[in-house]
Write a structure and sequence with these properties.
The chain has 5 helices and 14 strands. The protein has 272 residues and is an alpha+beta fold. Strand 13 and strand 14 (258-259) form a beta hairpin. The protein is 18% helix and 23% strand. The longest helix is centred in the first third of the chain and has 29 residues, at 2-30. Bound molecules: zinc ion.
């Protein structure tokens, strides 16, 4: 019974999400003006609200040789050093982190949660999967959605399905990158976006009223924010003292063991 009603509410979220995303694209095309270096708001970027890059860097538990970030959050450049297009879908600044990966690399859930939505966008988006992470899943004070983009094929997981930290979600790919800047070979990578739910967004998500809208009810943040130990609110990441801006991140090793075992947030790919 509970599972069934949960599935229904997630399906409702999906419907509103799919309605909201084309609106965003229309706003992006119609809206002029590049955003400044600071936070961008819905009226300017068409991708909803976002926080400016807080200056976090990633380190890995035990010094593991994890795949590092090829283009960080808020970066004006792509992995190859070229300048992102101002006024484009990401308004000239990167709306997530990129990990350059061989096609077919298993992508792992960064925390416990449940599958929220899935679909396929066009250029720059590709096949994607959204996973919802509530405070009880992560121990954080806020809820967030993680979006995995450019998947090789749709995830076999169903909407509403629960996932555990480090669970295999999908295979990496290059959908949405072939043609345009990256040419016919595309750019195989994971683009990971994290959007923190607002207080209202969390209430809507918890009640499953079907009114939840990603662009209105979330704020885009640096994905590294969720790995900061004990962070109370996403905006606090910008004000951390220097020594706390390097975030040590747990991972799953190639044998599938969680390192470290007590961590509730892990890197989205396994590490040697
Ligand atoms: Zn990206």
């Amino acid at each position: 019974m509970r599972l069934t009603s949960g599935s229904i509410s997630v399906t409702l979220f999906l419907l509103t999400c799919l309605i909201a995303l084309p609106d965003a694209n229309a706003q992006t095309r119609g809206g002029g003006g590049g955003g400044g270096g600071g936070g961008r708001d819905a009226s300017r970027s068409g991708l909803g609200k976002s926080l400016p890059a807080p200056g976090l860097t990633a380190a890995f538990h035990g010094g593991a040789a994890c795949t590092t970030i090829a283009s960080p959050y808020g970066s004006p450049t792509r992995y190859d050093g070229s300048l992102r297009k101002s006024g484009g879908a990401e308004d000239g600044l990167h709306g997530g982190i990129d990990l350059s990966l061989d096609e077919g690399t298993p992508l792992l859930a960064i925390a416990a949660g449940r599958v929220f939505a899935a679909g396929e966008g066009g250029m720059l988006e590709g096949i994607f999967l959204w996973v919802l992470h509530l405070p009880e899943d992560t121990g954080l004070n806020f809820a967030f959605l993680a979006k995995y983009q450019h998947l090789r094929e749709p995830s076999p997981l169903r909407q509403g399905e629960r996932v555990r930290p480090g669970q295999d979600l999908a295979r990496s790919g290059k959908t949405g990158t072939v043609g345009g800047h990256y040419g016919p070979r595309g750019y195989p990578h994971l683009h990971l976006t994290v959007r923190a739910l607002t207080d209202d967004g969390l209430k809507l998500a918890a009640t499953g009223s079907g009114e939840f809208r990603i662009l209105r009810d979330t704020v885009m943040v640096d994905p590294l924010t969720v790995y900061v130990p004990g962070i109370a609110a996403p905006a606090d990441a910008a004000n951390l003292p220097g020594e706390r801006k390097t975030v040590t991140i747990a991972h799953v090793d190639l044998k599938g063991t969680l390192r470290s075992a007590d961590s509730r947030l892990v890197w989205p790919v396994a590490c040697p």
